Each structure stands twice: as C-alpha cells, then as structure tokens.
Amino acid sequence: MIKIQTYDKDKQTISFTSDMSLSLANAIRRSILEIPVLAVDEVEIIKNDSALYDEILAHRIGLIPIRSDKALNKEIKFKLKTIGPKTVYSSDLEPSIGIDYKLPIVILSDEQEIELIAYAKLGKGIEHVKYSPGLIYYRHNLEPDILDFVNIDAEGKISYDDDELKEKGLSDEHINRIKKIKNCDELLFTIESWGQIEVKNIFPKIIEVLDENLEELNKAVK
C-alpha cells in the first residue's frame, strides 16, 4: 500500500510511505536512471568570445534540464545567439526548453558574443547523469533521532544495544521511546524532479521501466 505524505508542486517534490520490501525499494531507486529524458548531446559552436573554453560551455549546456514529458524518439535543435554585456541563461535558448526556472550559463562582457546550435536527444541516466530526471531515496519510516540508534533487518524488526544507548548519553525518556518500538514495516520515499518530468509522473514511469526490465528477464530465462 502507498500513502502520499506530502506533495509540493512548486518545489517538485513528493513523499509517500509504503510497506514494500527493501529489495523492491532498491530496484525502484535504481530504475529512475532508466527513464528516457531529453538532454543536449552535441553542441556546434559558431562563435564564442566568452571567458569559458568551448568544452566547458558545451558541458554546461548539456546539463540544462529540458522538458521531456511528451518526448518520444524525439530530437530537438536549440539555437543561442546573443551579445554582451549580460548574463546568458538557459531561457535564452530558442525554442524554449520548457523549464520555468533560469540557469546561468556564462557572463558576457561588453561586445562579447556567443552563437551556437545545440542538439538534444533522448537518453538514460545509466548512460550519463545529464539524462537523470531526478532523485529518489528512502528510509525506514521512523523519526531520525530514533533511526540513529537502532538496527533494522530486512523484515523490519528493530534491535538495539542497551549498553550502547546508555553510553551515548541518551535521556531515560529517549531510551524508553526507542524500546517501545519493536518493528518498522514502512519505508518513507522522497522523489525530487529536476524539471524534465513532472514529479507526480516519475514514480509511474519508474514502474513502467521496472516492469519492462522484468519482462525482458522473464523472456531471457525461459
């Protein structure tokens, strides 16, 4: 069972609890890197008067998130032509990358110019981090001040060392709180989106990817 705890559309974060196993949780965590998203893969630099080398400029542009919700086997060409003095932002790329926030690329002094063409294509985070759509992580659904002092096995059973608890100078009230908890069956997940995909859509896409991989595995072992 999955229960939504928080959802922040502006910050593009969502958290939920689930009683799934640790092995499944880890498979889900890894599968986020197999969701296809758009990223700049090649940059043709026509003019660069800035203080940055061509390679650094291309690297920065390659890490700009590009909206990828509806991208299917798609390649997009972006153009950038501008002159200083100004700070060049990701929003200066044409057409729009579809992301609301602006990322600084380079600062141009008076009369410095940049002209380039950037080619974006679909890729996966297992190939390069620029194709990562976000971050997913989890922990046992206990207060952090308790997690620091207990061990939790794969079945959610909690164990602790009485002597170690006393040696760490915990108050009797804190120790009693720890001893009252016998197991922890829930995991608390947090997902953060970099902007390519709406955060609410990332988990369903992870499940799609995981399902496809399991289907391929099933075919391979038959």
The total domain count is 2
CATH superfamily of the largest domain: RNA polymerase, RBP11-like subunit
CATH class of the largest domain: Alpha Beta
Q: What is the strand content?
A: 25-35%
Number of strands: 11
The CATH topology of the largest domain:
Gyrase A, domain 2
Radius of gyration using CA atoms only:
23 Å
The whole-number mean of residue pLDDT values reads 92
The main sheet comes to: 4 strands, antiparallel
Q: What structural class do you assign from the helix and strand content?
A: alpha+beta
Cα end-to-end separation: 31 Å
Shape: elongated
| SSE ordering | EEHEHEEEEEHEEHHEH
List the helices and strands and how they pair.
Elements: E1 2-8, E2 13-18, H1 22-31, E3 37-48, H2 54-62, E4 75-83, E5 86-89, E6 104-108, E7 113-123, E8 134-140, H3 144-147, E9 151-152, E10 158-159, H4 162-167, H5 172-180, E11 187-193, H6 199-221
Antiparallel strand pairs: 1-2, 2-11, 3-7, 4-7, 5-6, 8-11, 9-10
Helix pairs in contact: 1-6
